[in-house]
Structure prediction request, 192 residues.
Amino acid sequence: MSTPGTRGRPSGLVIGSLVAISFGTVFVMVNSGGLPAPWPLVLRIAGLLVAALLLVGLFRVARQAPPGAQGPEAAGFMDRRYWIVVALEAVALFGGLAVINGVFDRPAVSVAWVAVVVGVHFFGLAAVWRMPRYHWLGAVMTALGVAGFLTHALGGDAGAVGLVSGVGCGAALFATVALALRDTTTRLPATH
Prediction:
C-alpha cells in the first residue's frame, strides 16, 4: 500500500487500502459468527468502526497528498505478473478448499486455508510491486492460518479457528492500512 521513499501519496495507496479495508471487514464479519454471545456482535461492531475510521483517514490522506512519483509498481493491476500471482492464488484457494471440504470433510479449517493462501499471495505481490510491507503482511496472515490449523488440531472448534485465522487476518489487514496511512502522513509537508 505504500512504497518506501516516495514523496506524496504512494502509487496504489487508495485502491490497495480500499481492497484491504473491504477484505478485512469481510474477514471479521464472516468469521466472528461462531463465537458465543456477545462476541460476534462486539467484534462486528468493532470491525465496522475500525473500517469506518480507516476510510475517513484514507480519504483525508487522499485529499491532502498529491500522487507521488510513479515507480515500477505503478503498473498495478495491468502487470502480467500480478495476474499470475492471482491465478496461482485462485487455483490454490479453490483446489485446497475442495480437498478440505470434499475429501477430508473439515469445513472448520477452511478459513485457516484461506488465510495461508492469501498470506502466501502477499509474498508474490511484495515482489511484483516492490512493497516490503507485504512481506510482513504475508508472514502474519500465513502464521495466522497455520495457527488456525493448530487450534483445530488441539481441539478448537470452528469458532476458535475463525477467531484466530479469520478475525486475526482482518485485524492484520486493518493494521497494514493504518501503517500505510501513518507513513504517508509523516511524509506530508506540514500545513497550517
About this structure: DSSP finds six helices and no strands in the chain. The longest helix spans residues 158-187. The chain has a mean pLDDT of 90.
